Amino acid sequence: MRLTARIWIDAYLTRLRLQDIPAFIVAHGDDTGGAVLVKLSTLDGRARAFQRSFDIMTGERQWMTLAEGAEAEVDAAITRQRGYDPDLWVVEVEDRQGRHLLDEPGLSD
């Protein structure tokens, strides 16, 4: 059984908060079925955007880089994605060390 987008977002924000990593909901998508993008800003003008995708060979979900580079370019890529999918959630994580916790167990569900 998959978690709803809202429950996943709430759990992710809690994990970040427990590690003292600031994060904000930038775009509120559909509570049940909305896809999620995570933007990581390293506060030096650079950023990365991650999206979940399926590995068709294994059937597992994993986080893949959607865009990486200057923060303005990453923001433009996110804006394009939001144009395709109005139900899209966008969470912005701000961490100089580049921590996003997406590689931790349980966050690919």
Question: How would you characterize this protein structure?
Answer:
- With 109 residues, the chain is α+β, with helices and mostly antiparallel strands.
- 26% of the residues lie in helices and 33% in strands.
- The protein has helices at residues 5-18, 71-84; strands at residues 23-27, 36-41, 46-54, 61-70, 89-94.
- The longest helix is centred in the N-terminal third of the chain and has 14 residues, at 5-18.
- The protein is globular and about 35 Å long.
- The relative contact order is 0.27.
State the main characteristics.
alpha+beta; five-stranded mixed beta sheet; 2 helices; 5 strands
The CATH homology group name: Protein of unknown function (DUF1491)
Q: What is the percentage of strand-forming residues?
A: 25-35%
- The first-level CATH class name: Alpha Beta
The average pLDDT value, as a whole number, equals 91
**Number of contiguous helices:** 2
How is the largest sheet built, in terms of strand order?
1-5-2-3-4
Share in helix: 25-40%
Rg from alpha-carbon coordinates? 13 Å
The helix/strand series, from N terminus to C terminus, equals: HEEEEHE
User: Count the strands?
Assistant: 5
- Oligomeric state of the chains? single chain
Q: How many domains?
A: 1
Based on Cα principal axes, name the global outline. globular
Question: If classified by CATH, what would the architecture be?
Answer: 3-Layer(aba) Sandwich
Largest sheet: 5 strands, mixed
Distance between the termini: 9 Å
Structural class: alpha+beta
- Unreliable stretches (pLDDT < 50, length at least 5) are none
